[in-house]
Structure prediction request, 182 residues.
Amino acid sequence: MNKKILSEICLFEGEVKMPKHYEIDRYQIKSEILHSKLHRKTISDNPYHYAYSDYEVPTSKTLNLLRDYISENIYMDHNMRISPRLSFGNVFDPKQQSFFRNLIDPVNVKESPDYIMIYGVDVDKDSSVIIETRDKRGIEELSLFKIKNNHFLLFPAYLRFFINENTSFHTNVFLTTTYITV
Prediction:
């Protein structure tokens, strides 16, 4: 009897553990995201598009350090090569949450990302990401994953997800980066 795995969903989560004196400057990432929000630098100019609430994050040494950390550790720990593409930030005031979406472009699937990484830049202890999957009978299930400051969640880009409602009294800031497999 032989076993073949036809489908498997890999989700990676953890803390970003950098060497001493090379820590991620979350304050810099947060200030860049808030600067983009203040100047309305969004990924999309269309107010009816999901990306209208996604704020541009300029490339910086700190951002590249984080993106490379994820790529290199996924390769070392799981022998999977991924390369970062687009990074953007999300800002959620109290009682706000994100849209329920995935990041696959149905018109251009070939150029769509393979993975999404969500990183907690400055988040409340009760922050979470909800991901929709299907069980063995094709029934949709929602799974909740807590996300803390300096922690990340990496999952396939075809999965629908949303960042849960901000139940705290301060603003939550997240960084999202898309990856492709190489």
The mean pLDDT is 90. The first helix runs from residue 26 to 38.
